[in-house]
Amino acid sequence: MVSVRHQIVLITGASSGIGEATAQIFAQAGAKLILVARRQERLAQLADDLNKEFASDIHTMQLDVRDRTSIESALAQLPSEFSAIDVLINNAGLSRGLDKLYQGSYQDWEEMIDTNIKGLLYFTRAIVPGMVSRGRGHVVNLGSIAGHQTYPNGNVYCATKAAVKAISEGLKQDLLGTPVRVTSVDPGMVETEFSQVRFHGDTERGNQVYQGLKPLTPEDVADVIFFCVTRSPHVNISEVLMMPVDQSSSTLFNRRG
């Protein structure tokens, strides 16, 4: 296993769920963290908690990944000790709605496309050139089983995750001949705020998604991300499709009672 101690790891969507769990596992391993999210209060609390527990070196960036100008400005103003980013974890993403395509919300579509695809592209475009010039780096994109298998009423969300899959594959091809690695980690059902966000804050409906089965936890996914990043430099884990035992496809689940 390769140490990530003192490596600079940037995580988008870091204030909750998979992003927060990923920040914890890298902080514990001694990495320097750049934590990106929209919710400043939760970012600050996470940074404070990690600093107290692990004496972590942390820089926070409050911004919306849909805002390219803000991203470019924030990255340009990074303190020098955080500027040479070693690992980019494109975790920020969301699903909105669960409607038939012909009944879908334009606003929901735009939010998913702008966050899941364009936000990922903005960070990748801004950070990867530095990785290439320094001769080291790793990009981890959070995909989904939805990028492999379309499910009813998932239409545009599934399309955005299929795009993440294609972008990851294309980026790796474009980086051939450099030491920079690219990984796509594609989970099935994970119990996070995902379903509450999908249903616009309907907690009861969101909780029903996980009833009767044991989904993945954010820590499960963070553990896989950490494994991929800490392999020997000549090893590239290109893609990981992971699901709970109670799930066998995007639509097949074992629910008990």
Automatic annotation (TrEMBL):
Q: What is its EC number?
A: 1.1.1.276
Q: Does the keyword Oxidoreductase apply?
A: yes
- What is the enzyme's class at the highest EC level? oxidoreductase
Q: Record's SUPFAM superfamilies? A: NAD(P)-binding Rossmann-fold domains
Keyword annotations for this protein? Oxidoreductase
Q: Which Pfam families match?
A: adh_short
**What does the record give under GO molecular function?**
serine 3-dehydrogenase activity
Name the family the entry cites.
Belongs to the short-chain dehydrogenases/reductases (SDR) family.
In Swiss-Prot or TrEMBL terms, this protein is called Short-chain dehydrogenase/reductase SDR
